[in-house]
Design brief:
Elements lengths: L6 H17 L2 H10 L5 H9 L2 H5 L8 H13 L5 H16 L2 H12 L5 E4 L15 E5 L2 E9 L9 E7 L10 E7 L5 E7 L5 E13 L3 E2 L5 H12 L9 H12 L14 H29 L6 H25 L17 H12 L6 H12 L7
Parallel strand pairs: 1-4
Antiparallel strand pairs: 2-3, 3-7, 4-5, 5-8, 6-7
Length: about 375
């Protein structure tokens, strides 16, 4: 098989790298960790001005899924705060795929301008990754719907204009059949947003919906057809929109630090055989994650919709990231316990940060347990685990 990129794709990747070098600044990363908002408005606007966002929306414009992967792979490898624009583009892909023409006309230009973010309203306090158990109700009232309920882990809701909200519209049918999606403006009366700070320094939110009146024009897909919309959203989110290359900047940060720190006898940490072996293992894991992610992009590029391939790469990439963070923390201890801006911190604090952040990645976007169950049941044909 030929895994090489075409000359046009190589040129496209270099344009992304040039943009990152010209626009991204260390203070943007510092702001990310200080505020908990993993988003860079400067990068978003630059990507919009360069036409990258239009090419990155799945099923829209002149781009292809390989370019979508390249965009987020480069942003992630450079440690650019990109969660906000990733979610916006993912929802834009959903609207381009299943939305009405009116929804496309209203919503897509806002995302393409690079200044509109979107939150995902899937999980709830009592059901977590089992999103089909959602109990947030939407009841029809004339031309409107009245929404009541609560969502958890609605990241970016405090800076987003929209939320893609999963609701239950029929409580009397099996849980996967009575769901309906809405793309709701977050400035509607009755919506409350409360901050929740994670151990990975990221701010997420709990959101509450009290008699929120939502016009029917904001409904996405058919009534009670929300699970089909969810399948599209998860196909874009898992494995295609980033989140699988976090081990790359971790390895780079650790290698640079380990090559310059010496023990009392003048030996570099990077020359320790065990450290070198683990660095190689992390590099191999990173390469496998890249190839698995490209597999999902290839499926999308050839007219398909990635399914379990995204679950597979998410399980591998996030758990490999967590394993690498643990290994490098053990090698760097006690300097690995020091955080950003603390003197003597390993890799300027990145090792300590990645050790805290890596477990979070195995949870959001579907926990490893949920993804493993999906793979076992739908790919391997094993009995249901629950």
């Amino acid at each position: 098989m030929d895994f090489s990129l075409t000359p046009a794709q190589v040129e496209y990747r270099e344009r992304i790298r040039t943009l990152i070098r010209e626009v991204h600044r260390p203070e943007h990363t510092e702001r990310q960790h200080r505020t908990g908002t993993f988003d860079s408005p400067e990068i978003n606007r630059a990507l919009a001005a360069g036409g990258f966002l239009e090419r990155a929306i799945p099923g829209y414009g002149d781009g292809d899924p390989i370019e979508l992967w390249m965009l987020f792979n480069e942003l992630e490898k450079a440690a650019v705060p990109a969660d906000g624009i990733a979610m916006a583009l993912m929802v834009a892909g959903v609207i381009a795929y299943v939305g009405t023409e009116a929804q496309k006309a209203e919503f897509l230009p806002q995302v393409l301008a690079g200044d509109t973010l979107v939150s995902l309203g899937y999980s709830e306090p009592e059901c977590g990754s089992d999103v089909a158990s959602a109990q947030t109700r939407a009841v029809r009232d004339g031309d409107d719907w009245v929404v009541n309920g609560a969502k958890m882990w609605t990241t970016m809701a405090h800076v987003a204009k929209w939320v893609l909200l999963l609701t239950r519209t029929d409580p009397d049918v099996p849980k996967h059949r009575g769901l309906t999606f809405f793309l709701i403006p977050l400035d509607l009366p009755g919506i409350t947003i409360d901050a929740v700070y994670t151990m990975g320094t990221e701010r997420t939110n709990a959101t509450f919906y009290d008699d929120v009146r939502v016009p029917d024009r904001y409904r996405v897909g058919e009534v009670d057809g929300g699970w089909r919309v969810m399948a599209v959203a998860l196909a874009f989110e898992r494995g295609l929109m980033g989140g699988t290359a976090a081990g790359v900047p971790l390895l780079r940060h650790f290698h640079h630090w380990a090559a310059n720190v010496r023990d009392d006898d003048g030996r570099r940490l990077v020359d320790d055989p065990l450290v070198r072996e683990r660095m190689v293992r992390v590099a191999v894991d990173n390469e496998v994650a890249a190839l698995m992610t490209l597999r999902t992009a290839y499926i999308a590029a050839t007219g398909g919709l990635p399914g379990l391939e995204g679950s597979m790469v998410k399980v591998h990439a996030t758990e490999a990231y967590q394993r690498a963070a643990r290994w490098f923390s053990e090698a760097a201890a006690p300097a690995a316990l020091l955080q950003f801006d603390q003197p003597g911190a390993a890799a300027e604090g990145w090792i300590e940060y990645d050790l805290r952040h890596s477990p979070v990645t195995t949870i959001y976007g579907g926990t490893s347990e949920i993804n493993r169950n999906n793979i076992a049941e739908r790919h391997l044909g094993l009995p249901k685990a629950r």
